[in-house]
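Q: Convert this sequence to structure tokens.
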Amino acid sequence: MTDFGAKVLLLFAFAAPAIAEEDADGKIAYKFTPDFYSTTNEHPAYDLNLRGNIGPHAGWIGYYQRGSEFDQLRLGYEGSFDVPFGKLVPSVVVATHGFVGGSVNALVGDKYFGLLGLGRTNLANYFNLNFDPNDAVTFGVGTRAIPGTTLALFQVRDNRLDTGQRVTHMVARTGGFAKGLRWTVDLFHKEGSETAGSEHVRGTGASVTCDFGRYFVRLANDPHVNFSPDRMVRAAVGVRF
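A:
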């Protein structure tokens, strides 16, 4: 999970039990994720992200670079607070080039749950590694009724910049195949314009993550990264410690 918004909700819907186990002794549970991005009509890029969880708090530091064209250092924080209806998850991100963003999200329920969220930024220059619109609302539903499996259907929709951007996600996470082995599949359909009045794009992509013990690998294909005409292929290999 990078940055903020709907992905924060998914972290707690899908991965909160594992995080709780790792930091139950009061130590910080770290996750280090190097990412490589190959995009048509752009130089290759990489991102390094170090995240730490302790109790209800999490923080991260990340660095993104694309050739000599653009680089950005970012810092983030999020909390997870139990409330009568489920969990409340606020987050904030600051980055070089003057960027500030944040979100307030809610996970409502447990076995069957709803996802609600609102994100806002100051619209400063920022390379969005979240790939969903950040100035947006999020809404959806999910269930843990199938043992060992979590399913969710949700949409992230621009409600500020008149771009018509919306991404609908169908996500499944299961750990029932073998001990210590978990799969997460995110199938998404997106449509909208990069900026108001620009070309309207639409396409379907997918992300597949395999967790094995403390390690994980992720492959993703986005036909219109950040609603541009360009296709991105993403690969990541990470470790928890």
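Residues 6-240 form a domain with the Porin fold (CATH 2.40.160.40).
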